[in-house]
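Hi support team,

I submitted a single chain yesterday and got back a structure, but I'm not sure I'm reading the token output correctly. Could someone confirm the output below corresponds to the sequence I sent? I've pasted both exactly as they appear in my results page.

Thanks,
R.
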Amino acid sequence: MYSTELLIQTLITGLMVGVLYALMALGITFIYSIVRTINWTMGEFYMIGSYIQFVVVQFLLGPRLWWLAVIISTAGTFVIGYLLEPILIKPMYARPLQRRDDYATVVTIALLLMLRSLAVALGGPNQYRPASDLPIMWVGPLPQEGARVMASVCAVLALGIFWIVLNKTWIGLALRSVAQNRVAAQTSGVDVLRIDAMAFAIGVALAGLAGALLAPLFMVFPTNGAVTTVKGFEIIVIGGLVANDDVDVTLAAGEIRGLIGPNGAGKTTFVNLVTGIETPDQGSVRLGEGPITGLPPHRIAERGLVRSFQHARIFPSLTVIENLIVPYMASPATSDVAAGMARAEELLRLATLTPRADASAGALSGGQRMLLMACAGFMIPGIRVYVLDEPFAGINPVVKDTLIELIRHENATHGVTFLIVSHEMEIVRHLCPKVTVMIQGKVAAEGSLDEVAQREDVITAYLGRVSA
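Hi R., thanks for writing in. Yes, this is the structure output for that exact sequence:
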């Protein structure tokens, strides 16, 4: 027989338990969005959270301070995750931007088996339940277990805190930037490996929180996280060429140098080697008097060598001005937020982007994105050299003129040195007093554009050999 009361009770119970499963789903997706790996140990971190909750309530604080035990359980799971990530997950990246995709699945499954075996060895196969003295509570017209109601309230509160951290703090901005574009974040000065550790720890802490909150309801035992992990996944599912050989390029302080050459000449590879995206097999890269060879991109950016990309690497879900704040706040030398905002507003004005400051960066046109990416590089404190990789490609003449004026302004006002990779010869001629020509991975010529354009090897590289 149809029962309205039974239907309401089922809906209320489902919503209260569902918000707890949402913690697991959020943890799984959060780790994947940043670290780019599926963490198969989420159930085991759920289990760790439930065991810590049981021990703290049963032997230390008592049931009256269950809420403090939940905080301790969550913090404990966070610390365990933070300590394990550099040992187990960080080696997935041979370098910060080079993944070893076969590594993560094996290591997380191995960790799953290890943690589960450890729980069996320490706690045995027995089931435990932390004591609860919470009274029956009324939700609408129906009575519910106090532990269930408070667990749901805590889960909603935790989701709210997570949203605030992600959207209103610098660490949240850094996390979102890495999730949207790992390479752009790294070259903006963000230490992506540290962000990986933070993201992994936050993700498993959400699982530990779910385990602590559900411990009085679903018992504590070595495999208690398996079902919850499955529920979390259900929620998710429903919802040998040598490119550069003996390259020697030296830039003078304050210079605007062009880097030209035919397609396949090795220009982008050279830029990747200089800026830390790739590691040279031999030779050295120096910035001023200091060697920077082999440093990761964010460390090179901290020293003042910055780069852009052929295709605009921005953070589309962040606002335009947030895209500029990321590289500013990523610098360890940065503390004056007001100065950063003032600098961002100045650059937006120079780039004619002020009206779009609070708009989503993903709504910008292609040319506006290139301007935004260029401005983001200027936001890195202490920038000394800016390497622009095809900054004028595919953008309209008005935007090109704006970008040219921006380059000249930063060169004249702040003394920024530029190395500009471009096929736009007319722009190179007017903007760069000196150019370096690369052919087949080597420097073929240097001088003004008009000078190098007279060389036979340069003409041959661009036009092919012409028979007499």
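A quick pointer for reading it: DSSP finds 18 helices and twelve strands in the chain. Let us know if anything else looks off.

Best,
Support desk
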